[in-house]
Specification:
There is one protein chain. The chain has 317 residues and is of the alpha+beta class. The protein is built from 8 helices and 20 strands. The chain folds into 3 domains: 83 residues, Uridine Diphospho-n-acetylenolpyruvylglucosamine Reductase, domain 2; 125 residues, Uridine Diphospho-n-acetylenolpyruvylglucosamine Reductase, domain 3; 95 residues, Uridine Diphospho-n-acetylenolpyruvylglucosamine Reductase, domain 1 (Alpha-Beta Complex). A hairpin with a 5-residue loop joins β11 and β12. The longest helix has 19 residues. It is globular and about 55 Å long.
Length: 317
């Protein structure tokens, strides 16, 4: 396994009052649904927003940071991630029901649980979160959406910390949502958000959530090692249709394969490497470009460095 220089003691000396845990050369494979990838030079798990703000205010400018959540749409490269990986865990999962059909939710809150909380309080408009296997922080960053809904439709405000630990109150104008993207500064770390729904009937909301769950189970490779939708839908087209038209359904590279159930999903066998998965995705992009002239964009977030000791297996199919 790749190993980085241990910088945890020097960081601890800079921030003696930090409450969260820092781990050197922490394996990240368990933080990605693909279950692949190398270590983080430092993994930091802050206790709460104040702890994260302290960490950021003391962290030297030359140390890179990367924030992860549930890892459902994440590929960690085999060489690992230099610098600090921040994982927003239990201290960022609090939820609260407000007035006027609103919820205050932590950035680490799981989308599915937020959808259920809204249903329990007869708040309609958030059912689409049942179809997104991630956290609110990730949904804010990429304007997460599914089954006819997206964060832009329900977003009211958020809190975020910048690279120096300063707090920002985030408005819809700052987010400036577009398809699978927000225009908030890339170095901001969301810590919580207020989402607004509308009045509804609990029975109807739960019925819609059950429909979403059933459709997802029937059409997507759930309960497998996957990273969710691999490519963004191009303007006026669907990524999976382009992948299928290019003959990529079932295409394999080493331990990675294009799903035969939904070909905008890549699935990983037990022996797959991140190198296999990324190489397969790039091969699909090239075949789609050659066949249709459309350059697909990755929706899966890829972080870290390649490991020169890991080589990709050849394409099959």
């Amino acid at each position: 396994m790749m190993r980085f220089a241990d910088i945890v003691p020097s960081l601890q000396a800079l921030m003696p009052h930090l409450r969260g845990a820092m781990t050197a050369n922490a394996p990240l494979a368990g933080y990605s649904w693909f279950r692949t990838g190398g270590p983080a030079q430092v993994l930091f798990e802050p206790e709460d927003e104040a702890d994260l703000a302290l960490f950021l205010s003391c962290l030297p400018d030359d140390i890179k940071i990367c924030v992860i959540g549930l890892g459902s749409n994440l590929l960690v490269r085999d060489g690992g991630v230099e610098g600090v990986v921040i994982q927003l865990g239990r201290g960022f999962q609090d939820t609260e029901v407000l007035d006027n059909h609103r919820l205050r939710v932590g950035a680490g809150a799981v989308d599915v649980k937020v959808a259920r909380l809204a249903a329990d309080h007869s708040i309609d408009g958030l059912s689409f979160l049942r179809g997104i296997p991630g956290t609110i922080g990730g949904a804010l960053r990429m304007n997460g959406g599914a089954y006819g809904g997206e964060i832009a439709q329900v977003f009211e405000s958020a809190r975020a910390l910048d690279r120096r630990g300063r707090l920002h109150r985030v408005t819809p104008a700052i987010m400036d949502f577009t398809y699978r993207h927000s225009h908030a500064p890339q170095d901001w770390i969301f810590t919580q958000a207020v989402l607004r729904g509308r009045a509804g009937r609990k029975e109807d909301i739960l019925a819609r959530m059950n429909e979403i769950s059933s459709e997802r189970a029937a059409t997507q490779p759930v309960n497998t090692r996957t990273g969710g939708s691999t490519f963004k839908n191009p303007e006026g087209a669907k990524a999976w249709e382009l992948v299928d038209q290019a003959g990529c359904r079932g295409l394999r590279c080493g331990g990675a394969q294009v799903s035969t159930l939904h070909c905008n999903f890549l699935v990983a066998d037990a022996g797959a490497t991140a190198t296999d998965i990324e190489a397969l995705g790039e091969a699909v992009r090239q075949r789609v470009l050659d066949h249709t002239g459309v350059a697909l964009e990755w929706e899966i977030r890829r972080i870290g460095m390649a490991d020169p000791r890991v080589t990709q297996s050849g394409l099959v199919g």
